[in-house]
Predict the structure.
Amino acid sequence: MTAVDGGLAARVRQRIASSSAPVTPAAIVSAVRAESAAAVLGDTTLLRLADRVHDDLVGAGPLAPLLADPRVTDVLVNKVHVWVDRGEGLKEVAVPVGSVDDVRRLAQRLAASAGRRLDDGSPYVDARLADGTRLHAVLPPVATDGPYLSLRTFRQRPITLDEMAGQGAVPRAVAPVLAAVVAARLAYLVVGGTGSGKTTLLNTLLGLVPDTERIVLVEDAAELHPAHPHVVGLQARRANVEGAGAIGLTDLVRQALRMRPDRLVVGECRGREVVDLLMALNTGHEGGAGTLHANTPSDVPARLEALGLLGGLPRPALHAQVAAALQVVLHVRRADGGRALDSICLLLPEGPDRLVRAVPAWGRDGGPGPAARTLAELLGEREVAVPPILRGPWPGPAGVG
């Protein structure tokens, strides 16, 4: 945009800001025409200026083109430096976000558009914008060299399992295993680190659920949008400025059980709601799913133990519930700048204490693992065709007692 356009846009913003009229597209266009009376503007220039002013007033400003790019998953702003992830890792891009004060005002405007407060008294915010984008912002002095903005976008159209295989995120030979897990109504957790693709994979697998089944989603922030005709979602609510009105995931899981779910899904297990989920999966709600932060599959039992203790469930009872309720762990991680399925494990009890551990059924580096035979048997018991990669020869017993 030229300096003339920039000056005109600034005058239009000032005119709109000084007016008490609602900020509508028509009002913005009228203001552009009024401020450019001495200039001859073509329709293309007029619309471009109107779009820029709209983004600056009620949108993401200079970040709007990045958020509109379907390849972009994350936009990060460190002070005045912008980083973007288009599925190939973070790369710095040249975006004129203005001064540090401009970035601060942008963060405050985005927070306000989500009904949240962001100022010196409340220097950080976690919110969901109208288009589904997740916003996290931190202001100085909490942000030592800030402000910092983190924006995560979500696909309007969920990616299919075939597309994931085509992109290399899931090996072609393993894709039928994932489809079989869903068809057999095995309960599973998608685990991995932040930004590893857990939500993307879960979204894809939920799209494989038969159309005759009802999916009930419970999430802290609504991120899942599976391609399925019968999905209902429940979203947690934070406390208001007076500290009242909060509704957590534990309450929502209990409400979801009264909504006749065929598949109960907890978007992210990170608190005592894991106890309610396990109890639900143990009372006839097969095929449930969720995501969990864990660096490796072997960390999952310990992670579940920690969450179970928050809900007052002792260790032996927690392991007994897990052994009966959950079968499969799907581990995803970042690989070569992208995101990929790294392993499939089964949660199996071992030893006299019957504590569960994650036993590999397939690994990206090693192929079928010790639990491949057990997974094949589980699928066969539920009358689901066993994919070729699980038909043997197997590397050995699962090694559980």
The radius of gyration is 25 Å. The domain at 161-390 is CATH 3.40.50.300 (Rossmann fold). The chain has a mean pLDDT of 85.
